[in-house]
């Protein structure tokens, strides 16, 4: 696409979304950069949405979009699914409250359902987000093993806190050797401590990973991994088998971060797909049906580290002279196990037990149609991913296995392509992966492929 065409697309975007621009300017007086989360921003300004229904979003100017962002994969049933709405309404009506602040029935009901779907989860704790879930999993691992360092993989994201916000998207110049990656902080305000205490591993490279872990086995409490990097780059089976074997051998816990992959490959997630039992698992996004939730679970002996004790309560002032809170792993949260959210999660699982195969089938159909359109025009692209999530990688590279392989992709072309799709009513944040919901069907696939065909004609 030439400069003139690019300028025309930006002009068209501005003409279609003037209310979004006005709102964004007003929002900038309330929030830094006009956004409450960095991830929600994109240039020249983000489209401001007014409402959602099924597989569609509607912006302030009344433009309609087929939604493939789906709140970064959380809305696996689409917007406003009637059974989720009904479940939440029934919980509110029957309980008479939207928050107990005490134990309640749905905590156990949801927990048993998760245990059935994820046999590796013998006990669990609820959190309010996937980020909180990984934070708890790491604390459990360090408490259980008595070691205070963790290892994560280059290019993997586990939340926005200092301990794991390293080497998520480092520059290749800073990142170091592909088989011995450097630990690079990804935010201002981070202490160098975390670059020293978070060890970076090369994804899908078992030999290099094993070498690093053997050298650091006395320091590393756990390896945390996205089995599907960023939700679309799968680990090879041999890599996952080898990672399970070497962590077992070295006495290092293995944490599966399934915040993205929960219900996206199947109801049992990536651990069912790979037939591997991690020591700890973290779930999020789709498990709440669009409501904020996280789950941390795993082996009983590890989870038992968090059993509350009366004489070891950080909040119990009556025990201040005799308590030893540091002898118990602390985990708490006012909204943990929120009844309305657990009702939504249970309803989501009920629907997915009926619909998940069809959702994955629609995703496969869309991927196949996209690949065919690009092939017809001789444009190299990969529709990479499993289950109901995938991404478009503009590259001539035959195989994408990790973060370094992604650096060969043409992100400039992809960004322009996504921007044109926005103007055609196909929504995902530029450069982001696609997620499919139960609300997507043949009509959405056909409309999307028509838009792709039109945009490809201008490339």
UniProtKB/TrEMBL annotation:
Signal peptide: none annotated. Pfam families: Aminotran_3 (PF00202). Its cofactor is pyridoxal 5'-phosphate. Keywords: Aminotransferase, Pyridoxal phosphate, Transferase. One of its GO terms (molecular function) is transaminase activity. Belongs to the class-III pyridoxal-phosphate-dependent aminotransferase family. This is Aspartate aminotransferase family protein. It comes from Siminovitchia acidinfaciens.
